[in-house]
Write a structure and sequence with these properties.
Bound molecules: flavin-adenine dinucleotide
Pfam families: Acyl-CoA_dh_1, Acyl-CoA_dh_M, AidB_N
Cofactor: FAD
Family: Belongs to the acyl-CoA dehydrogenase family.
CATH architecture of the largest domain: Up-down Bundle
Keywords: FAD, Flavoprotein, Oxidoreductase
Distance between the termini: 26 Å
Domain Adaptive response protein AidB N-terminal: 8-141
Shape: globular
Largest sheet: 5 strands, mixed, barrel
Length: 533
């Protein structure tokens, strides 16, 4: 593997100053977990890194529909290395349920980085989450999921609508102590692996639209020990191959109601908040893997008589990667911090929960963009080799391209963000936190960020509903950029002046839309963090 990758074999935690500083800033128990993170960083840089490449290129999950005796099984066959990584990482879902925090879970998710591998863990964690909060009668199943003895899944999308969940045609009929579901779940990640899925369906007679949907727990095997649903096929995907995604056919399948039927859409959207945070952290984890590949490349490749890293434009590109990486990671952990404090709230929720959701849309959307741009830039910085599937770097761009799509594309993030403003007034908590922070910093760039926040939100408030939708994505982006400037300044406050410079660079490029200032050309602490002096 070290012939095809510069990142392979390195400790992905020990090398990551941004991660360590951000965890130190947000997570009071960070020091107590540092040893574990160092060990996990070594595992992520070696076994996980090699396995995700191997699965992507040579060992995709294969659907086996029948066993030797002719019984229908619909199970996927995984390579032994794939199975081993899943077993060795199952524990990352445990901390929030054992008195720990979401920072812990997401720090480990970031180190995994690969969206496919992390997806299996995320959907298993989301299933445990739904049981933990709303169906404690299934706590034994939750324990199996958290131990890695069972896999979960979140099956909502149908062929006629992923964003538009209200278009679900899945139907549920009561049958004694359980329900019978008939549905065609068209994008079912974890297909063939899942032991318990959570899935949306409309109880017979319930109202149309999203509010009529209930959430159910769907076991792979029913009470009689028979296969409870079929997997029609696995999708042929351009990336995320380490998670099998397929089509699930439910035909009178046995299922159990989670919580109250009328609140199903709330539970579903709450569950989506968890996966959107995972998406944000996975996007930045993916981007960081590509960045590590680039740092190796620019120190070795020569062009026009000098190493790549000696050329001003290469330093400019490295600056761009460093700015996006620090900003995106800080934004993700800020949203995680707010979620960690608010996640126990239940419908109709608290203002702290709505604020966490507001920040989750901001983070999900922007980090997906950072990851897509950064991984494409990483390929370009490898020149022709970057385009070859033979080397590790190309893999990361293909992986990054899922992050803007699943868990809701950018338009959906913008519309949901708008909803947190119009219905929940979540922007008020945001203004209360960020305006004083930027005023206290007081630099020219902090003022620009503050003005951006005020003017963009004021403008949104002045628009008709149609116009507000038209502008929502732009405002979401502006808020994301101004937030990252503020958070980078906040990191500088804890004593690291590198982040003050990163804040200025971020504001210059993303808010003023000017080129990075040329003082950064000589600032190796910015563009060359991780490169030996
Ligand atoms: C690899 C992979 C794995 C997946 N795994 C799962 C899974 O396990 N479980 C699951 O439930 N789903 C899963 N999905 C589905 C995924 O979540 C959906 O594809 C995604 O949410 C988008 O839904 P859609 O495909 O129906 O697109 P659509 O909803 O048809 O959207 C198409 C486009 O229209 C835009 N759009 C939609 N509505 C509006 C509007 N009102 N205004 C403006 N623009 C709009 C969207 O932003 C998007 O760009 C998976 C998808 C992929 C690719």
């Amino acid at each position: 593997m070290n012939h095809i990758s510069y990142a392979y074999g390195q400790n992905h935690f020990a090398l990551d100053d941004d991660l360590q500083i951000i965890l130190q800033h947000y997570w009071p128990e960070f020091a107590a977990h540092k040893k574990e993170l160092i060990e996990f960083g070594a595992y992520a840089g070696r076994d996980i890194y090699e396995t995700v490449y191997h699965v992507d290129h040579d060992a995709r999950p294969i659907l086996m529909t029948h066993d030797l005796d002719g019984n229908r099984i619909d199970r996927v066959r995984l390579s032994p290395a794939h199975r081993a990584v899943l077993q060795n990482t199952a524990h990352i879902n445990r901390p929030p349920y054992e008195g720990g925090s979401w920072h812990h879970h997401f720090a480990l998710g970031y180190l995994i980085g690969d969206p496919g591998m992390y997806c299996i863990l995320t959907i298993t964690g989301q299933t445990a989450y739904a049981i933990h909060k709303y169906a404690p009668e299934f706590n034994q199943i939750k324990e199996q999921l958290l131990r890695g003895d069972a896999y979960g899944a979140t099956w909502m999308t149908e062929s006629q609508g992923g964003s538009d969940l209200g278009a679900n045609t899945a139907i549920a009929f009561p049958d004694g102590d359980h329900w019978r579901l008939t549905a065609d779940k068209y994008f079912a990640s974890g297909a063939g692996l899942t032991d318990y899925a959570i899935t949306t369906a409309r109880p017979h007679g319930a109202k149309a639209g999203p509010k009529g949907l209930a959430l159910f727990l769907l076991p792979r095997v029913n009470k009689e020990g028979q296969l409870n649903f079929h997997i029609r096929r696995l999708k042929d995907k351009s990336a995320t191959r380490s998670v099998p995604s397929g089509e699930a056919e439910l035909n009178q399948s046995e299922a159990y109601l989670i919580g109250e039927a009328e609140k199903g859409i709330y539970y579903t959207l709450e569950n989506l908040t968890v996966s959107r945070l995972a998406n944000a952290i996975g996007a930045m984890g993916t981007a960081r893997k590509a960045h590590l590949e680039v740092l190796g490349r620019v120190q070795r490749r020569q062009a026009f008589g000098s190493l790549l890293l000696e050329h001003p434009l290469i330093r400019r590109d490295l600056t761009d990667l460093a700015v996006r990486l620090a900003g995106g990671l800080a934004l993700s952990f800020h949203a995680i911090e707010k979620f960690d404090k608010a996640w126990e709230a239940r419908p109709p929720y608290t203002s702290a929960y709505h604020y966490a959701r507001f920040l989750t849309h901001v983070a999900k959307n922007k980090t997906a963009n950072h990851a897509s741009v950064m991984t494409a830039m990483a390929m370009e910085l490898f020149g022709g080799l970057g385009f070859l599937e033979e080397y590790a770097v190309a893999h990361w761009h293909r992986e990054a391209l899922i992050t803007p799509i699943w868990e809701g594309p950018s338009n959906i993030q913008a519309l949901d963000f708008l909803e947190t403003i119009n219905k929940q007034r979540a922007h008020e908590s945001y203004l209360t936190e960020f305006i004083p922070l930027l005023e206290q910093v007081g630099t020219r760039h902090a003022k620009i960020a503050k003005e951006t926040i005020e003017s963009s939100l004021q403008k949104l408030a002045s628009l008709s509903p149609q116009q507000a939708q038209w502008h929502a994505k732009h405002v979401l982006d502006q808020i994301a950029d101004a937030t990252q400037v503020a958070l980078l300044y906040a990191l500088a406050h804890s004593g690291n002046t590198r982040y003050e410079k990163l804040a200025e660079l971020y504001a210059t490029h993303f808010i003023l839309h000017e080129e990075y200032p040329d003082w950064a050309l000589q600032d190796q602490a910015i563009w060359g963090a991780g490169i030996d002096a």
